[in-house]
Amino acid sequence: MNAHLRTALDLAARGVPVMPLRVGKVPFGNCPACRDNACCGRPNMKTPGPCDCPRPCHAWAAATTNPDVITGPAWAGAWGQAQAVAYHPGGIGLTVVDLDHAEAVAWARSTLPATRTVPTTRGEHWIYRGAMPSVNAVRDGADIKSTMVYARWLGPGTGTMTTLPDVVRALIVKKPSPVRPVTAPVPAGGGECRHRTPAYLERGIAMAEQRITAATSGVHATVYRTFLAVLSAHGRCGCLTDAHAARLFAAAQTKGESPRHCVDAWSNAHTALGM
């Protein structure tokens, strides 16, 4: 039996949701339409929209503990080409602080509570008990990997795993979400909607935040559609500010969206509206 497949089955038997990774630490597609991570006409899953592929499908969402899926036709041949095994940390209530270089490791050792550590090619994974939203680049060389992402399995590591501390949770709020400024001109009316009252804008932003927060699936698509709706209603009036956009980005990140995904969705919505 292939070594990666053996590792995956062993992890799955212990309740760890797993998946194969190909060259470049990239997931395999689970059906012909997903080959090379292209699905439903959306290369690399970079643009939002519905997916008609069989479930489970794509990256972290495909991670499973079901041995019939792991050894089944969806991944037939994948394990022979696999370069690594990945797992979904948030799926088992864990958070990985992924440290990419020696300086980041030194920062962690002087700042974060000790926990289980796993050596990586360039740095270390620090693993805590507890899940949280995943955010890349919380500081130089440090990513948070927990919900809605995958991490490479690099072995059990050493040390005692400790509870996710507040200092790690705070990493995703200390650094403000990057907000692409709205460039629509402010009208002569002092920035108020020419066709709505100021209260309408506030209600609209609050409803948009609620819509994102309430999403239980298809978060990428929900965030994009919500951004599109807000910009369609207010993006050309001059009343929409960076503070409003920051509220939407913050809501998206509580659902596991990364800052980069927020910026991309915001930019795509601008493009779709010809702004």
Report on the architecture of this protein.
The chain has 275 residues and is of the alpha+beta class. The chain is built from eleven helices and twelve strands. Helix 8 runs antiparallel to helix 9 (219-234) and helix 9 (219-234) crosses helix 11 (259-272).
Annotation keywords:
single chain, 275 residues, alpha+beta, 6-stranded mixed beta sheet, 4-stranded antiparallel beta sheet, 36% helix, globular
Question: Helix and strand layout, with pairings?
Answer:
Layout: H1 3-13, E1 18-22, E2 26-27, E3 38-39, E4 42-43, H2 59-62, H3 67-70, H4 78-81, E5 84-87, E6 94-99, H5 102-111, E7 116-119, E8 124-129, E9 135-139, E10 142-145, E11 151-152, E12 162-163, H6 166-169, H7 171-174, H8 198-213, H9 219-234, H10 242-254, H11 259-272
Parallel strand pairs: 8-12
Antiparallel strand pairs: 1-2, 1-5, 3-4, 5-11, 6-8, 6-10, 7-8, 9-10
Helix pairs in contact: 8-9, 8-10, 9-11
